Structure formats: structure tokens, C-alpha cells
């Protein structure tokens, strides 16, 4: 139902003419009717059941202040000789509240109720008018009304009883009404929410309230931020030290607690910080004395001991206590049983279902649960608490603190900076392990700032020389990639920050069958060959690469690039990998075949029929259409076996469109120039498709700008390893000189819109 706002002049003129008669006033009259003659009206708009709590609240209010609003009623149709009754069209909740007061003994069914009587014909209009156009009071108006009653001498208990709220709620509303008038006006005008004004009300000081609000920017006026500003250094009940001492102990010692009217019972502020500190020290005193008696160099109690406070200390590692003979026997027993369980589970995994050694799901699950229990039992032995030697205790100390939950927490074997020299000497003399933090390092003659400056010059010099020596640059890049993909670690052995991302969807995970198919064996064989050829020690890799022919370096680069290839997709759309496939003149049909397992079982029968109709013949497609899907898939596999057919998105060479940003080399990273990059080149078809006989649209980019001429391995060859090559520099400079806001692939693209050897005509 559309709601019409009466104040809208445009609506009034179109829907309600200015001279329209008052549709209710003409027939309405005020009457007094006994409560027993009032009944529910079938025309009352509200059909849902009234909330009992609301009825009780209105009953209490009417008992206290009487009937303030009349009921709107209409005469009900009655039989002859029956007393006339009146349906309550507006005010049904008030009628139910009056009946409740009758039950309570505060009202009588014969008592008269003030009503406005209307005709039955206008009942629906009257009920809708009362319910739809009634707006609740703003909370600010309610708070001021309560304050006015309090100013007249009404008690909080009286106000609470009249308006069916708790006395605590009334006290809170009165406190909100007493907030700084400037701030209360903001709340009344909806420029501040209820949580914010509650936060400001934790103090009665208007100046502090205004300073907290107007002194904060818009983003720091949340309720928690305002409460934090006004709270100052007072601790909340959630503070770790308060939780440890407990509020009860603090109050028992005479501590003052400041509670917010709007806070829960478990929320408040600790006012006397000195008392809390004393109670904390008293509670941890016994623990401190216990560790002092153990012989530690020093013991301290601290309320907090966070990461920044721990940084100056070096922690000594505890020695593992040897197992007793009984403990060792128990551990060996657990290990033996764990081996038996694992062997049984492995045998079940290897056995044929139903064969010897194969376990039911229930039996296998029971072994898994037993294995978990055995692991937990052995971990208790492995993670047993160690012990500290007398030498360690002589040079280190203990901090007794509490965690965020308020539980006691102890940090042992902490070496202070001033004790590090002595600790190192004592541990070395005892033949004990010396932590890295205590290892003596000679202070260099250069400051950190100077080292940063000098190494920046070194980097600039190497960068300057590297752009003129493509051979070393190639080795440096491939060296970095080999560390990542071949050695799988030691990236810190390279100063080059180039890296390739691992594919989001690795081939082996989404298509595990690839590992078993011979047509894909060349890649793992190449990886194995490269691994075999590289030095075992990654520290020798860079020097080894410098001594190798460039063909070897390029071969390693090819393997690393293939490692990082990411062409797996969730959607049938252009993919950058198609450009690479075209450049390689790759016939995908030689690798993937439309078998039942690879394709036909996973598509609909209609799709199978459509493919066969296109690739084989329409007659064959019609024949398959009459079969069940399983039979159709089997027949289709045979019909497509030698057709070199690929699905459209696998055969197409389109590349996903993108926008590219090219930067000015002289300006570094600060000046990027946007250029339209038509990466989707339809395989960059530049000549008519001889196979189809149709002309292919010429990509405008191919007509406007020739492909970038990137150097190949032969271009980079030089007579000596020390000779500088200007070829790369010249090629790059020429490319930038000719560059417009366009870009094309740096190799000749296929001359057909399909990848090589795919999508033959039927």
C-alpha cells in the first residue's frame, strides 16, 4: 500500500483537493459508553495479537493518570432485543488495558469510557488513519518529559511505575537530559546517536563533555572513543590486573568503584589505582618469594609484560629432563602400538575393497581415533617441562605477571642487557648452549644510516652497468627464478627482486590425471634434467650460470617460466595463455581428446548431439539424439576420435581484454601514462582464413604499429663474456621512440582465429 504524505503540496493537489469535505467529522460525536458495551471491531486495521507487556504498561499508566485518549467506535449490528454494542475501531489496546484493570479490581465493567462514535462505513478509514500516521516521540522529547516530571517533585519510582520502566532506566534518562544543552540539541536534531550521548553522560562536567565531543574529529566520535577520553587513566573491570585482584577484593579493601548508569552490572571503573597496585603486589608476593628461593638472579612482579617490554631480554632455553626408566617403557609401548595402528591403516588403504586386510569404515574410524589418542599421550612426554641448570639461574631472572584473562603467568630464564656479558662467559665455561642473543658481535665502524647510503650508491652503480650487459642481466634473473622454482628456497642468495607467482589452481590438483598421461611427460622430464644439471649447493649457482652457454640459461628460463604458467580458469572466456599457445604453434588436439572420461560424461546429451552434428554429420547427430545419454556418449567418443575437435573456448585464440599503464622510465614509478591495450587480438589475424574462405577483419593495431622487436638468444651472443652489448639498449630505446598509446604482442601471431590444428570443418 502506498503511503501518501499529507504535507506534500504536490500530492495534496493531485489526490486531496483543498476544498475536500472532512469525511469523518460530519458523522462523528463524542459519547460515554460503559466498558461492558465495547467489543473488538472487525474493521480494526491491526489484526496481530497485542503484546501482553504493552497492555500491562498501558493499564498501569491509565490507572495512574486516567484515560487521556478517547476510543473510536462504531455501532455493531445486533439482533432484536439485544443490547447495543460498539466495536472499537481505534484504541483496542486501551480497551484491553481497561479490562485488565477490571481483573485487578481498579475498574468496573459498568464504568463509562469516553469514545468518539463514527459510522460503520467510515470505520476502515478511521482505523488506518490512527495507525498509519502516528509517529513515536523522539527519545530527546521523552527524556525532557521525564526531567520535567522530576522537576515537579515526582520520584523516579513514580515515573517508572507510570511509564512501565525500571527506576534505574528513569535515572539514566534523567542523566541524559542533564547533558550539556549544546550536545543535547545535537542529539535532538539527530546529529548524535543514543550511544554517543550515553558515553558523554559518564561525567557531569559539561566542559569536559563538550571538550571530548568538539575536540575530536568526526571519525573519533564513536561511543568507545568518547568514553575512553572521559575515562582518563581509570581502569575498567576488564583490565587484566583488575581481573587478577578481583573487584570484590578491591572493594573489600575500601576501594571506590565508579559505575555508569548505562553499563551492565559487571562494568565499572577503578578509581583508586594506588590501592589496586598494592593489592596486586600482595597477591603475587608468595609467587615471587617462591622463585627467589629457587636461586634465580632476580625476580620481578609486573602488571603487564607485553612484546615491547620483552624485547630487551634474551631467553635461555630449558634443558630437557631425561625420562625415567618407567616413563621410557611407557613411551616405547605407546610408540609400538602407534606403529601397529599405522600399519593396519596403510594395509587397508592398499587392499582391494572386501579383500584381505581391508577394514570397514567403522573399524578404520576406530583406528584413526586410537591413533589420535596415542599421539596426544606421546606429546605429553615430548612436551614435558624442562629444567634450568644452576649456571643458567645464576645469570637470569624471572618476571611474574598476569595474562589478558587475569591468570598468573611466569617468564623464566630472562637475561637482562647488563648481564649479557657475564651470562655468556658463565655459559661458555659450563659448556652450555649460548643463545644467539648472547653471541658477541663486533660493532662496525659505520653507522646504519651511512651503510644505507653507501649500499644505495652500490645498487645504483650495478643497475647502471646492468642495462648495458644483457648477458649478466639474463643470468641474474634466471638465477633468481631457479632459486625459487628449482631449489624451492634460498631466495636471499639473489639481489634481484623479480619473482613469479605460483598458479592459483595448480594443474596437478584440478587435473591429477595429467601426471599419468604420456603426452605431458616432457615437462617433468625437463624439470628433472634441469635439477640434475644444477649445482647441489645453491651458493655455487650464480658462478656456474655465468660459465654456461646462453642456450643452457635460456633452457632453465623456459623451465621456470613453465612452472609459473597460469592458464587454469573457471570461465569460458579469452585467456592470455592462448597467445602463448599460438606463438608456440601448439596443436592442443594432440594433447586433449574428447573421451567419455574427459568430456562427454560431463556435458548434457543435447551438447553431445550438437557436437557430433557439427563435426561428424547431422545424420549421426540425429541418430545419437534417439539414444540414452550413456550410449550416445560411447558412440560420440568413437565418432570424434580422429577429428581433432576441441570445445570452442579451447580452440579459440582470443585473449581477455585489459587496460595497461606504461610509465616514463625517467620518472620511475611516479608517472604512469595510461594507454589502451587491445590485448584481445582475435589471434591477430592479418590475412584471409584460407580454410574457411572468408575474409578476416584486420586488427587495427597491426596496421598502425609493428610488433615490438624483442631480442632473442642469438642477438645476445657476444664474442667474449666481458664485452658489453648495446643491442638491448638500442632495441629498447628504438621501441620507446616509436611507441604510441598502443601495444601488441612481441611475436608474430597465428594467421587464423583458431589455434593450430583445431576445429576442422565437418
Automatic annotation (TrEMBL):
Q: Which sequence ranges form a coiled-coil region, renumbered to this chain?
A: none
Q: SUPFAM superfamilies, per this entry?
A: KorB DNA-binding domain-like, ParB/Sulfiredoxin
Q: Mind telling me which InterPro entries this protein's record contains?
A: Chromosome_partition/occlusion (IPR050336), ParB/Sulfiredoxin_sf (IPR036086), ParB_N (IPR003115)
Which residue range or ranges hold the ParB-like N-terminal domain? 31-132
| Region Disordered: start-end pairs | 319-338, 684-706
In terms of PANTHER family, this protein maps to: CHROMOSOME 2-PARTITIONING PROTEIN PARB-RELATED (PTHR33375:SF7), CHROMOSOME-PARTITIONING PROTEIN PARB-RELATED (PTHR33375)
* Name the UniProt record assigns to this protein: ParB-like nuclease
**Which species does this protein come from?**
Burkholderia pseudomallei (Pseudomonas pseudomallei)
Organism lineage = Bacteria, Pseudomonadati, Pseudomonadota, Betaproteobacteria, Burkholderiales
Amino acid at each position: 500500500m502506498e503511503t501518501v504524505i499529507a504535507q506534500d503540496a504536490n500530492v495534496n493537489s493531485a489526490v486531496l483537493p483543498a476544498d475536500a469535505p472532512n469525511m469523518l467529522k460530519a458523522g462523528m460525536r463524542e459519547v460515554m459508553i460503559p466498558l461492558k458495551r465495547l467489543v473488538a471491531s472487525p474493521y480494526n486495521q491491526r489484526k496481530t495479537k497485542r503484546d501482553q507487556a504493552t497492555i500491562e504498561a498501558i493499564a498501569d499508566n491509565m490507572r495512574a493518570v486516567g484515560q487521556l485518549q478517547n476510543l473510536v467506535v462504531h455501532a455493531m449490528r445486533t439482533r432484536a432485543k439485544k443490547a447495543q454494542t460498539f466495536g472499537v475501531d481505534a484504541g483496542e489496546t486501551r480497551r484491553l488495558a481497561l479490562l485488565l484493570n477490571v481483573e485487578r479490581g481498579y475498574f468496573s465493567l459498568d464504568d463509562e469510557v469516553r469514545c468518539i462514535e463514527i459510522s460503520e462505513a467510515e470505520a476502515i478509514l478511521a482505523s488506518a488513519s490512527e495507525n498509519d500516521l502516528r509517529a513515536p516521540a523522539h527519545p530527546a522529547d521523552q527524556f525532557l518529559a521525564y526531567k520535567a516530571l522530576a522537576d515537579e517533585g515526582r520520584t523516579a519510582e513514580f515515573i517508572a511505575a507510570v511509564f512501565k520502566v525500571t527506576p534505574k532506566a528513569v535515572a539514566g534518562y534523567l542523566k541524559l537530559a542533564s547533558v550539556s544543552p549544546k550536545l543535547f540539541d545535537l542529539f535532538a536534531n539527530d546529529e548524535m546517536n543514543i550511544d554517543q550521548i550515553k558515553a558523554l553522560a559518564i561525567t557531569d562536567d559539561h566542559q569536559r563533555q563538550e571538550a571530548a565531543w568538539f575536540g575530536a574529529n568526526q571519525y573519533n566520535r564513536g561511543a568507545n572513543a568518547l568514553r575512553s577520553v572521559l575515562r582518563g587513566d581509570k581502569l575498567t573491570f576488564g583490565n587484566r590486573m583488575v581481573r587478577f585482584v578481583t573487584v570484590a577484593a578491591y572493594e573489600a579493601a575500601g576501594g571506590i568503584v565508579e559505575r555508569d548508569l548505562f553499563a551492565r552490572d559487571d562494568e565499572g571503573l577503578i578509581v583508586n589505582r594506588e590501592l589496586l597496585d598494592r593489592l596486586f603486589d600482595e597477591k603475587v608476593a608468595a609467587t615471587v618469594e617462591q622463585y627467589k628461593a629457587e636461586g634465580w638472579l632476580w625476580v620481578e612482579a609486573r602488571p603487564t609484560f607485553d612484546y615491547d617490554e620483552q624485547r630487551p631480554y634474551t631467553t635461555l632455553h630449558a634443558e630437557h629432563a631425561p625420562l625415567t626408566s618407567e616413563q621410557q617403557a611407557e613411551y616405547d609401548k605407546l610408540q609400538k602400538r602407534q606403529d601397529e595402528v599405522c600399519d593396519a591403516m596403510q594395509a587397508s588403504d592398499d587392499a582391494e575393497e572386501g579383500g584381505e586386510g581391508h577394514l570397514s569404515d567403522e573399524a578404520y574410524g576406530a583406528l584413526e581415533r586410537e591413533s589420535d589418542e596415542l599421539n596426544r599421550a606421546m606429546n605429553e612426554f615430548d612436551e614435558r617441562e624442562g629444567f634450568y641448570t644452576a649456571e643458567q639461574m645464576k645469570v637470569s631472572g624471572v618476571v611474574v605477571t598476569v595474562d589478558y584473562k587475569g591468570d598468573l603467568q611466569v617468564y623464566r630464564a630472562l637475561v637482562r642487557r647488563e648481564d649479557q656479558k657475564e651470562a655468556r662467559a658463565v655459559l661458555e665455561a659450563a659448556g652450555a648452549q649460548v643463545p644467539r642473543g648472547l653471541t658477541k658481535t663486533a660493532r662496525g665502524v659505520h653507522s646504519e644510516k651511512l651503510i644505507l647510503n653507501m649500499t644505495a650508491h652500490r645498487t645504483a652503480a650495478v643497475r647502471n652497468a646492468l642495462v648495458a650487459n644483457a648477458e649478466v642481466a639474463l643470468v641474474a634473473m634466471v638465477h633468481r627464478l631457479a632459486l625459487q622454482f628449482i631449489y624451492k628456497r634460498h631466495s636471499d642468495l639473489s639481489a634481484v627482486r623479480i619473482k613469479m607467482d605460483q598458479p592459483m589452481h595448480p594443474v596437478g590438483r584440478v587435473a591429477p590425471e595429467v601426471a599419468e598421461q604420456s603426452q605431458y611427460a616432457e615437462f617433468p622430464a625437463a624439470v628433472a634434467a634441469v635439477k640434475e644439471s644444477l649445482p647441489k649447493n645453491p651458493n655455487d649457482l650464480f658462478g656456474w650460470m655465468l660459465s654456461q652457454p646462453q642456450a643452457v640459461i635460456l633452457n632453465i628460463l623456459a623451465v621456470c617460466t613453465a612452472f609459473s604458467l597460469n592458464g587454469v580458469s573457471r570461465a569460458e572466456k579469452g585467456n592470455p595463455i592462448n597467445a602463448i599457445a599460438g606463438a608456440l604453434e601448439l596443436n592442443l588436439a594432440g594433447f586433449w581428446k574428447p573421451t567419455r572420461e574427459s568430456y562427454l560424461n560431463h556435458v548434457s546429451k543435447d551438447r553431445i548431439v550438437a557436437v557430433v552434428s557439427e563435426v561428424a554429420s547431422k545424420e549421426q547427430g540425429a541418430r545419437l539424439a534417439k539414444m540414452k545419454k550413456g550410449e550416445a556418449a560411447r558412440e560420440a567418443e568413437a565418432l570424434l576420435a580422429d577429428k581433432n575437435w576441441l570445445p570452442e573456448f579451447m580452440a579459440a585464440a582470443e585473449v581477455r581484454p585489459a587496460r595497461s599503464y606504461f610509465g616514463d622510465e625517467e620518472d620511475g614509478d611516479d608517472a604512469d601514462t595510461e594507454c589502451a591495450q587491445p590485448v584481445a587480438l582475435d589471434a591477430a589475424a592479418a590475412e584471409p582464413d584460407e580454410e574457411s574462405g572468408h575474409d578476416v577483419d584486420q586488427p587495427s593495431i597491426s596496421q598502425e604499429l609493428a610488433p615490438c622487436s624483442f631480442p632473442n638468444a642469438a642477438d645476445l651472443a657476444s664474442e667474449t663474456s666481458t664485452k658489453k652489448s648495446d643491442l638491448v639498449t638500442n632495441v629498447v630505446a628504438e621501441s620507446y621512440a616509436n611507441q604510441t598509446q598502443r601495444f601488441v604482442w612481441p611475436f608474430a601471431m597465428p594467421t587464423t582465429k583458431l589455434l593450430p590444428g583445431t576445429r576442422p570443418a565437418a
